[in-house]
Design brief:
The structure holds two protein chains of two kinds.
Chain A (H helix, E strand, L loop, with lengths): L5 E12 L8 E13 L4 E5 L6 H8 L7 E6 L2 E3 L6 H6 E4 L13 H12 L4 H14 L16 H13 L5 E5 L7 H18 L2 E6 L2 H7 L2 E6 L2 E7 H6 L4 H9 L5 H14 L1
Helix pairs in contact in A: 3-4, 3-5, 4-5
Chain B lengths: L3 E12 L2 E13 L4 E5 L6 H9 L6 E4 L2 E4 L2 E2 L5 H7 L4 E4 L3 H4 L6 H13 L3 H14 L5 H4 L9 H13 L5 E5 L7 H18 L2 E6 L2 H7 L2 E6 L2 E7 H6 L4 H8 L19 H6 L2
Classes of the chains: A alpha/beta, B alpha/beta.
């Protein structure tokens, strides 16, 4: 059996809110023991409402935050956020939710893309430039965008830049923290297509964090549902969507707006009957 | 007579690169007891058109229209003092980001009571009681305690409920909801949409729902206007729009829904050519 790209064992994270003079400190268990493995080339979707710990999980597996306890193995090697080696940093990258906040407004796009190479490899300046230019074209932008600043781009283009930056180091897996929730429907489709194309081309592994089930159904191989720090459901996409087991998953499905003609008909009929 | 009737509305902004038309010749009319959805991408002018009705645009904006009437009263040539009596009272608006639209320096109670004292002349005890009643109406059960809370002490969904309570404070005849659920989770989104639709049915007000989410449209609207780059692309009742859209742009939007994905790729709006339609819509 091949080594999974990512293996997580009993991962926990507590946040301690400091109490006041007369108030005791409070402990919030944001992630309460998560286990999973992820094979190469697959997409794992993590679903849940805000505050359920999905972003905390993302930060831990990207080696930004240190877990309170538990183990993370990347390509079979133990990883720790306390000491991230250059080799480890090249294996995992993240794309953040808000493309307006995740790019430095004073940095040109070319520099944004070349910076990961500057920090983590000893490539020459020319080579870095060359790679950045190639990646820019790969994500659907042009060479003319190389010397522009982030404010000159739309939300969808910025998200393309953020994805390009994450891919500069050829990571083993990519954490996508709600990459399309800040985007319009039509732009969302373009970004989802881009992610699929890149996955096919580079054999990428994704951890895709989202609260939008229609997007998850489109992109995921496996689905993990989180609720108040616990994993309440984990299975293949088809299994979870066909037969949700946990009550929370069912609530989530019921809350997702339906855009098919039959449900609109039903709604209008119900409204007529009530009037 | 329609509640709100707008004919040939144009809004242009004076920018350094010249005049920019955000809204170009749009007609909107809403009846009482009707839910109208205005759909479009960012930059399609859907919010700007409604902000023009409310008179909330900055001075760089030029608003022209052949007709802009609320219950038969001309909004265009009305004295500002007169207009302020209607705006916020008979026409109310809910904004996109609930946490950003509330004033962080004042308690929720103060902000709701401010509306009540300005438009309804309610003061002190009466205002407080009405505010608690409003919070209960929007599903905040411990209203009396919540009046003393500041916006940062509440979640996004709770803040949106407070915004809705403020908008409903004077029992408006027309409620404009500008992307009321965009910043919220699906489960909270469902609660807020159900609440809006229920309140609309109970009070019989007109509701204009501005959104880019086709799911929200399908769940709430009676009639839909699709906007693109300041032009109206299509106007239809909700069933016709989903079943048999006449505009190419609407078809493109609908096929970009991940629910409707056929095969491995999502068709994107740019795969369709509807540039000719934008011209024809003028």
């Amino acid at each position: 059996m091949s080594t999974p790209v990512l293996e997580v064992r009993n991962l926990k994270r507590d946040y301690v809110t400091s109490g006041g003079l007369f108030r005791p400190a409070k402990v919030l268990h944001a992630v309460k023991g998560v286990n999973f493995t992820l094979e190469k080339g697959k997409t794992l979707a993590v679903v849940g409402e805000s505050g359920c710990g999905k972003s905390t999980l993302a930060r831990m597996i990207t080696l930004i935050d240190q877990p309170t306890s538990g183990e993370i193995l990347i390509d079979g090697l133990p990883a720790s956020a306390a000491h991230v080696t250059k080799q480890m940093r090249q294996k995992v990258q993240i794309v953040f939710q808000n493309p307006y906040g995740s790019l430095n407004p004073r940095q040109k796009i070319g520099e944004v893309l070349a910076e990961p190479l500057l920090l983590n490899t000893d490539m020459s300046n020319d080579e870095r430039r060359h790679r950045a230019m190639q990646m820019l074209i790969k994500v659907g932008l042009g060479p003319e965008h190389f010397n522009r600043y982030p404010h000159m781009f739309s939300g969808g283009q910025r998200q393309r830049i953020a994805i390009a930056r994450a891919l500069m180091l050829n990571p083993s897996f990519l954490v996508l923290d709600e990459p399309v929730s800040a985007l319009d429907l039509s732009v969302q489709a373009q970004i989802l297509n881009l992610l699929k194309d890149l996955q096919d081309e580079f054999g990428l592994t994704y951890v895709f964090i989202s609260h939008d089930l229609s997007v998850v159904r489109y992109i995921a191989d496996e689905v993990m549902v989180m609720y108040f720090g616990d994993v309440v459901e984990h299975g293949t996409r088809d299994a979870v969507f066909a037969d949700p087991q946990h009550d929370y998953t069912k609530t989530l499905f019921a809350a997702t707006p339906r855009a098919d003609v039959n449900s609109i008909r039903a709604r209008i009929a119900a409204k007529k009957a009530a009037a | 007579m329609p509640l709100l009737e707008i004919k040939n509305l144009t809004v242009s902004f004076d920018t350094s690169a010249g005049l920019f038309k955000a809204v170009d010749g749009i007609d909107v009319s809403v009846e009482a007891r009707e839910v109208l959805a205005i759909v479009g991408e960012s930059g399609s002018g859907k919010s700007v058109a409604m902000l023009a009705v409310m008179g909330l645009l900055p001075p760089t904006a030029t608003v022209t229209a052949d007709k802009m009437e609320f219950e038969g009263r001309d909004l265009l040539n009305m004295a500002p003092a007169e207009k302020r009596k209607i705006i916020g009272k008979d026409i109310a608006m809910i904004f996109q980001e609930p946490v950003a639209s509330l004033n962080p320096c004042f308690t929720v109670g103060f902000q709701i009571e401010e509306v009540l004292s300005r438009h309804m002349g309610l003061r002190g005890r009466a205002a407080r009681d009405r505010a608690i009643e409003l919070l209960q109406l929007v599903g905040i059960k411990d209203g009396a305690e919540r009046l003393g809370a500041f916006p940062h002490q509440m979640s996004g969904g709770q803040c949106q409920r407070v915004m809705i309570a403020m908008a409903l404070a004077c029992s408006p005849k027309l409620l404009i909801a500008d992307e009321p659920t965009t910043a919220l989770d699906v489960t909270i989104q469902k609660q807020i949409l159900d609440l809006l639709v229920k309140l609309q049915a109970d009070t019989g007000m007109g509701l204009i729902m501005i959104t880019h989410d086709m799911g929200v449209v399908a769940e709430t609207a009676d009639r839909v206007i699709v906007q693109y780059k300041g032009h109206k692309m299509e106007e239809a009742d909700v069933l016709t729009l989903f079943e048999n859209p006449s505009s190419k742009y609407t078809r493109a939007l609908l096929s970009a829904l991940p629910d409707n994905a056929v095969g491995d790729r999502l068709p994107t709006v740019s795969d369709f050519n509807f540039a000719d339609e934008v011209g024809a819509g003028r």
